[in-house]
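Sequence in, structure out. Go.
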Amino acid sequence: MVRGIRGIRVGTVKHDDAPALPTAADFPALWPVPTRWADNDHYGHVNNVTYYSYFDTAVNGWLIATTGTDIRDLPAIGVVAETSCKYVSELTFPDRLQVGLSVEKLGTRSIVYALAIFRENDDALELAALGRFVHVYVDAKTRRPVPIPAEIRSAATLLVAPDAV
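Output:
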């Protein structure tokens, strides 16, 4: 069992013990990500690997917007060391999405994000997937681990869940 959003457990649970799934209100930030025609696969829904692209786009887009910095120009960059996704419901083009962002753990050299993809449905946001995304910061040239840049740390602090460790 993996610790999830604001204490919600994500992983294998018995159905009678299943906790309530998170809602958009459980995330300090939401980032809009549109689906694209090319996201659909031969089965008529968004291909599973595309969900990871949505996570990546949301995290990095939010960091750029929040820091006011092109994070690609920093001397340290966040490389993805781990990702996971739990699929809850099917997505398809032309769904409009919001990705919920939260920081589960803010370390010295890494950030563990807890994420969720929500489909816009009229005035509601419906959960479609839960994700985990780990950025490890490395020197842009040497690729050796380094501390999280101050701009990134400051922004990530805004996403730290109250019960995060």
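Check: The longest strand covers residues 124-139. Confidence is low (pLDDT under 50) at residues 5-14.
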